[in-house]
């Protein structure tokens, strides 16, 4: 059974950097068919894709967030990470890590981390 466990801050100030780590168990993040993904859901809004990293290491970013976002991984720890720079209150959301399978389905999710950006 694949499990994803996120860690990240709960409250940050505007202009700071958000950093998240997703630790994966029950499967390797280097497996070719899967794409490891960060998603968020602002309050009262739908899900928004942020970035993904494939098993082979290729990275993909939402055009609207690309300038402020970096996704990476540590294969020795089976973790992938997200950094979001220069945050504003509009970045307040629940942040999720998830796995996208070969059928383009997000089949496993982390528990979600609530982040509030406020001074």
What would you call the structural class?
A: mainly beta
Largest pleated sheet: 7 strands, mixed
Oligomer: single chain
Shape: globular
User: Based on DSSP secondary structure assignment, what is the total number of beta strands?
Assistant: 11
Count every helix, treating DSSP H or I runs of 4 or more residues as helices: 0
Taking Cα atoms only, what radius of gyration do you get, to the nearest Å? 13 Å
Q: In percent terms, what proportion of residues is strand?
A: over 45%
Helix share bin? under 10%
End-to-end Cα distance: 40 Å
SSE topology string: EEEEEEEEEEE
Pick out the low-confidence regions: none
Give the rounded overall mean pLDDT: 96
Describe the structure concisely for a colleague.
This protein is mainly beta.
Draw up the topology in text.
Elements: E1 3-7, E2 11-12, E3 18-25, E4 35-41, E5 48-54, E6 59-61, E7 69-74, E8 79-84, E9 93-100, E10 106-109, E11 113-117
Parallel strand pairs: 2-11
Antiparallel strand pairs: 1-3, 3-8, 4-5, 4-9, 5-6, 7-8, 9-10, 9-11
Word description of this protein:
Strands 2, 4, 5, 6, 9, 10 and 11 form a 7-stranded mixed sheet that branches. This protein has a 4-stranded antiparallel sheet with strand order 1-3-8-7, with no helix packed on it. The radius of gyration is 13 Å and the shape is globular. A hairpin with a 5-residue loop joins strand 9 and strand 10 (106-109). The chain has strands at 3-7, 11-12, 18-25, 35-41, 48-54, 59-61, 69-74, 79-84, 93-100, 106-109, 113-117. It is mainly β and 119 residues long. It has no helices and 11 strands.
């Amino acid at each position: 059974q694949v499990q994803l466990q996120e860690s990240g801050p709960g409250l940050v100030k505007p202009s700071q950097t958000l950093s998240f780590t997703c630790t994966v168990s029950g499967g390797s993040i280097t497996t070719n068919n899967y794409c490891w993904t960060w998603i968020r859901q602002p309050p009262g809004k739908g899900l928004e894709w942020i970035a993904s990293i494939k098993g082979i290491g290729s990275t993909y970013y939402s055009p609207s967030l690309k300038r402020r976002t970096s996704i990476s991984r540590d294969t020795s720890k089976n973790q992938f990470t997200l950094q979001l720079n220069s945050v504003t209150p509009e970045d307040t959301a629940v942040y999720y890590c998830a796995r996208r399978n070969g059928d383009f389905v997000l089949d496993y999710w982390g528990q979600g981390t609530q982040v509030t950006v406020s001074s």
